[in-house]
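Researcher: Let's continue the batch. This sequence belongs to Glycoside hydrolase, and it's 366 residues. Same format as the previous ones, please.
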Amino acid sequence: MGKIFLILLTLGTLVCNGQNTFKVQGLCIAAPNADGVDEFVKFVDEELGPNGINTLVLRVDFNYAYESRPELRGTNPLSKEQIKKLVAVAKKHHINLIPQVNLLGHQSWAGKTNKLLEVYPQFDETPHVKIPEKYEWPNADGLYCKSYCPLHPKVHNVVFDLVDEIISVFEAEAFHAGMDEVFYIADEKCPRCQGKDPATLFANEVNKISRHLEMNNKRLWIWGDRLIDASTSGIGMWEASMNNTARAIDLIDKSVVICDWHYEKALPTPALFALKGLDVIACPWKKPEVAREQVMMMYNFKENSTPEMEKHFLGVMHTVWSSASGFIKSYHTQKEKTKHPVSQEACLRAMLAAIKDLEPIGENSD
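Model: Same format as before. Here are the structure tokens for Glycoside hydrolase:
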């Protein structure tokens, strides 16, 4: 009887270690369109859950039939019933389901103003910058994506309605606010923000959102690029900040989870966030080798850290920047030995395989 118990205990430990190499083994992807919900549920049920994904960030934005702010519904948005299908399959596989609505930045894309500034143009940080009919980068206005003005007295009344409702329908414990690639902040022509410190403005906005969430015991996640100094790191203006927001890393609440995305190399910036007392997740995109290196990097950080730092290295999260349906179709048609290994699908497979390869290490560790 004792030997049987020992065998069962050992098997249980192996299963536990195999499924929990990291606290976060995630995927960030656009929420499916209304006609793709069943396909997405099947993908979670047959692929993501069984292969170890335990965290799913869904970029919803305006793709939901908001009841609190119906004027901000997108075209053919997801219904509450459809969201509940996503919630149910996530619960089945013990997946932490986190909705994302882009706050502050990413209020436009290319030649299109997104719903918030379309309906509420008074929230625009740079109303003098017009969306061109034909968008090109670079451009004279430095326009990548529009931002809302964080100091507009009414903007949070609107966006917090969206945040509260989407968290409720998702039955979520956390919320992702995006906040990456914020190029328009403290604009010199903004009557409220001109002359103010960009780092303080950014940090205050992060903390305002974070503290709103904390009132209901929810946690804020954001992308980390605005908190890295582009000049001293040499990382550049996309994956780090060249508009003086990096000092916000010392001003934001320690409860905020940082999604540290780097797509060309496994840059060691997770250590920066951990040293600042912030929980951090490394995020790849389409290069399988980068995903493998990020998995190993995060494991090595954990193994070679003090307990005070080790707890901050939460894991890895693959990012997808195409439609959910398009990604699912490609995932099923592309296998590991594809002729085109540099792809989102190959990268996800590489990340999951690298995590699996760590399991024997985890099983033999003290």
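Researcher: Any comment?
Model: DSSP finds twelve helices and ten strands in the chain.
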